[in-house]
Amino acid sequence: MSVPVQLRNLRRDFGPTVALAGLDLDIGPGELVALLGPSGCGKTTALRIIAGFESADSGELLMDGRDVTAVPAHRRDIGMVFQSYSLFPNMTAAENVAYGLRVRGKAAAERRARSAELLDLVGLPGRGDHYPHQLSGGQQQRVALARALAVQPKVLLLDEPLSALDAKVRLTLREEIRRIQLELAITTVFVTHDQEEALSMADRVAVMKDGRLEQCAAPSELYERPATPFVAEFVGTMNRLPGTVRDGGVVELFGRRLPIHGDAPAAGREVDVLLRPEGLAVGAADADGGTGATVRVATFLGPTTRLHLTTDSGLALKADLPSWEAGKLTVGARCTLSPHENPVLVAER
Fold it and tell me: What are the start-end ranges of the E strands in 47-154?
């Protein structure tokens, strides 16, 4: 059964260091929410408080509407997957998966059946008799996931479970974790430092900074409509361009006037315009309007190519183009840059 989880004004201090500064977050039943942010932002502390491994100095933690702030970890009905697998080396995969059921006094036949069912679910049928040292890192993490799910927890916690794996295995396993999470409809909180993981797996991403929540939104909204300059620059790649605010809630950039997303500073203010690489149009060198620039580096990324450019005024920018179009612009080529006509976020200087 999926349950909602609510964090209410959670605060946690470690001496003079503030780990959580009044964190509020609502997680819906069956939802996967990723906690994302720089090192020291409080995301792991928040996860450990949900798990019951840390105690909050103040605030409340609610699961299914019940206050579990003071409930010990073993009574919270939570499954957890760690970065380091944490499998018992002297137990087979099946025995590792069934461990929690054995602790709960379940019969041997039930443990075997449940273990086999979950190993099949995570893509390891027939591997139940293998010991951890006989399995790859990705397979061990699948066993750890099956073990966390064996006791049918109401909430699943994932503490950077993919960071120790190589890129190809990480991609495959994150797709598998998402498939299983959707199939079981289990409420899940996922801590990661990898933006791509967060944006590709989560229903919503909660971006944290200095123990506070900056924004919690669907991946597309977070990327396209960041609520703060910090979110805009932390998630994805962002250009900062000098602009001037004009009357009517617009900013002048490269000779064009663009609507400002959110509250606009007073007219006449000099600001930084935050613009994604795909928000810049790259035209021919003799195109009307825009500003002149020179291609310094072209990085092929498959369907897109990222151009590193320098404007005639010395500003370094990045622009993403379809690779077939970018192929016409070699290093050293001249071009013209202009912003697309979309609302932009500005940051005061």
Answer: 58-63, 66-67, 78-81
Going by C-alpha positions, the residue among 109, 189, 107 that lies closest to residue 148 is 189
The whole-angstrom distance between residue 175's C-alpha and the CA centroid of its chain comes to 14
Tokens in use for 74?
């073993």
Q: What is the torsional sign of CA 97, 98, 103, 106?
A: positive
Distances (CA, A) of 19 to 9, 39, 57, 228: 13, 11, 11, 21
Task: Give the whole-angstrom CA distance, residue 181 versus residue 22.
Answer: 29
Nearest to 154 by CA among 55, 65, 43: 65
β-strand partners of 110: none
Mean pLDDT value across residues 120-148: 93
pLDDT tens sequence across 203-249: 999 999 999 999 999 999 999 889 888 999 999 999 999 999 999 99
Report helix, strand or coil for 178. Answer: helix
Overall residue count recorded for the chain in this entry: 349
**Separation CA 83–CA 165 (nearest Å):** 9
Determine the Cα–Cα distance for residues 349 and 345; give it in Å rounded to an integer: 13
| Backbone φ/ψ region at 331: left (φ over 0), alpha (ψ -120 to 50), beta | beta
Q: How are beta strands 280-283 and 334-339 bridged, if at all?
A: antiparallel
- The CB density around residue 53, as the number of other CB atoms within 10 Å, is 14
Whole-number Å distance between alpha carbons of 330 and 64: 58
User: Per the structure block, which two tokens stand in for 341?
Assistant: 């006509």
Which pLDDT does position 1 carry in this prediction? 65
Report the predicted TM-score, pTM, of the whole model to 2 decimal places. Answer: 0.89
